[in-house]
Specification:
about 350 residues, alpha/beta, three-stranded mixed sheet, 10 strands, about 15% strand, catalytic activity
Length: about 350
């Protein structure tokens, strides 16, 4: 295999795909790729680029009826974690970039996130309802370690006693344990930690720049021990890759203190179908066709199903088997565990950042 056609380590997508909104498409010609191989050069720059943006709003209403959240907040657009299956890749096309490599190497930083959130929570028209960090892209991706935007957002949620949910794959969340503990005292926070596999090699291929499996399990233990309500999302389930891990994974997270577990079936919507297909043909060539065929079996013969209520869990025999395994796993390992309901009652008294006295 030539250097130009070899597996691109450290990234999920193995190249850029055309943006559906662009009038022109770009492709690497074979003569250029051969030249790069002979000269021992990379055909494309894969370094991460940070781009500052200043949006007018930061809290987004979620209209999809089957995502389990009403509002989301994403301080970053694009995600360096590089999860090859990520549904959020398609959103990068609206910014003029590719859903492929661009999504994980061109990261948009919403510099005024904290100010916009504070303004939103101070609004007399805003009624407290949970806002989820990372409804689209991970709020604890690598650049957060330096910028601390998510940490400062959590300080605002605490200041105004407003409920917040967090979805992440990154152990960096432990840095903010001090704030999370304070939020948890008033039932103002829930954490949903994404753990897709117990196999480190699978994790490395599927999610190249995320925390290791061990670090995520350690994170789960630390959050639970500190009294922060934490559940696990085993998402997505990919037949032929991690679908055999359901019972052992639920057993492991239960032992680490998880209060619950959820899942979604992989669906390769939009540009992600081509990105995933290209990836698996390089990363797992021996089982690529089998996995793709089993994914299609879960979605009526296609790699994606966009029908609300069916798209997240899939349909058919494989999807039903997965559903039954989760029912068994929850009953066996998580019976009686309940995540506390987020508290929406305190915020009205803290509209100005302190309790209203008169």
């Amino acid at each position: 295999m030539s250097k130009a056609n070899s597996y691109l380590n450290g990234r999920g997508a193995q190249g850029n795909v055309s943006n559906k909104f662009d009038a022109f498409t770009h492709e690497f010609r074979s003569d250029f790729l051969n030249y790069c191989a002979m000269e021992d050069e990379e055909p494309q720059n894969t370094k991460t680029v940070l781009i500052d943006t200043f949006p007018k709003t930061i809290v987004n209403k979620v209209n999809s009826p089957d995502v389990g959240m009403g509002y989301s907040l994403n301080p970053y657009q694009g995600c360096e974690h590089g999860c090859v299956y990520c549904y959020a890749r398609n959103s990068h096309e609206y910014w003029g970039y590719s859903a492929g490599l661009d999504f994980e190497q061109k990261i948009l930083i919403k510099k005024n996130s904290v100010e916009l959130l504070e303004k939103k929570l101070q609004s007399k028209r805003w009624q407290a309802t949970p806002i989820v960090l990372s409804g689209n892209t991970d709020c604890y991706q690598p650049i957060e370690k330096k910028l601390e935007i998510t940490r400062n957002l959590l300080k605002i949620f605490l200041k105004y006693k407003h409920p917040v949910g967090i979805i992440t794959k990154n152990s960096l969340i432990i840095r903010d344990l001090d704030i999370l503990i304070e939020l948890a005292k008033d039932n103002l926070v829930q954490v949903h930690l994404s753990i897709t596999s117990l196999n480190e090699e699978t994790r490395r291929l599927l999610e190249p720049r995320t925390a290791t499996v061990k670090k995520r399990l350690d994170t789960l233990e630390k959050l639970s021990a500190a009294g922060v309500p934490v559940s696990v999302m085993m998402a997505p389930i990919i037949p032929g890759i991690n679908s055999h891990e359901i019972l052992p994974l639920v057993k492991t997270i239960a032992e680490a203190g998880a209060l619950g577990v959820g899942y979604t079936m992989v669906r390769l919507n939009g540009a992600i179908g081509g990105i995933f297909t290209s990836w698996i043909q390089k990363a797992m060539p021996d089982r690529a066709e089998k996995v793709l065929n089993q994914i299609a079996e879960c979605h009526g013969g296609n790699l994606n199903d966009s029908v609300f209520g069916r798209r997240m869990k899939g349909s058919g025999n494989i999807a039903e088997q997965v559903s039954q395994q989760f029912k068994i796993a929850k009953k066996k390992y998580l019976s009686g565990r309940i995540s506390p309901t987020l508290n929406c009652e305190l915020h009205a008294e803290f509209k100005q950042g302190q309790m209203r006295l008169f």
